[in-house]
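Write out structure tokens for L-gulonate 3-dehydrogenase.
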Amino acid sequence: MRPSHTQGLVLCGRIPSPSHSKCDSLHVPTPDAPSIPLPLPTPGNHRSSLHVHDLLLFCTRKEMKLLEQSGALKGSLGAEEQLALISGCSDLREAVEGTVHIQECVPENLELKQQLFAQLDQIVDGNVVLSSSSSCLLPSKLFAGLVHVRQCLVAHPVNPPYHVPLVELVPHPETAPATMDRTYALMRQIGQSPVRILKEVDGFALNRLQYALIGEAWRLVEAGIVSPGDLDLVMSDGLGLRYAFIGPLETMHLNAEGILSYCDRYREGMKRVLKTFGPIPEFSGAVAEKVHQAMCVKVPDDPEHLAARREWRDGCLMRLAKLKGQVQPP
């Protein structure tokens, strides 16, 4: 029997790059063995269990070794010590025995997730948190009809989760406050940055902001106002540099003598510009082809070039995370 205080994950493939078709259950070590392919790098000294394909375990070992070599491995234990805390089992009931937090990571398919949570609902007791990694599916649909609904919530990580710490915590209307509190504390303990979404809304907070930005970016390209390449520069060399350290509301606060001053100064201009925003784009047709061609000039869409660019991106995020850890606000 495994020790208590085990963190469990049920996943298909790896986060953020699903590569397998069979659903596996996964338990990750605590607190010194955060595992690179997973959205929950869990802290602790307790042995954990892992039921995965050999390929997934091989990839986990490879990536953790690379992280260790680059100095980016989290926790105080080395890669081999962390990997030694991962063991396997072949039965879902056995896999979740003794867990206090189960993080589901199957593909973004409502029916699949509902089926999985229905199985877990029949197995778990009243002490385990049932958490989904869904990026958009509403908790009221994900957990509908479950006996243990008060123990359920969405804990949505951001890709790549090993380097981007944000986790959105989204409750079901019947989620117990203690479930939110426990999950918030766990995420803080393992070095993530949890935010409480106080009530469910389609897209939560991150994707609502992201899709608003993508929508206007698309409209600007479609209208011939800016090229796709220059549009990306507006973010990477403009807004993104600020937003890596402070959010849009604090940006407003600092760009005037506080929020109220900013609103007094720029209210009418903001409202005027917002009124010019167009309808929701189709994200298809000639504009999609134009954007695709522009992106392929920069990064060809074959697997090798995409993988190399993702590796470069992750390295940049790793270095940025280190910098953010060194730069503390006054």
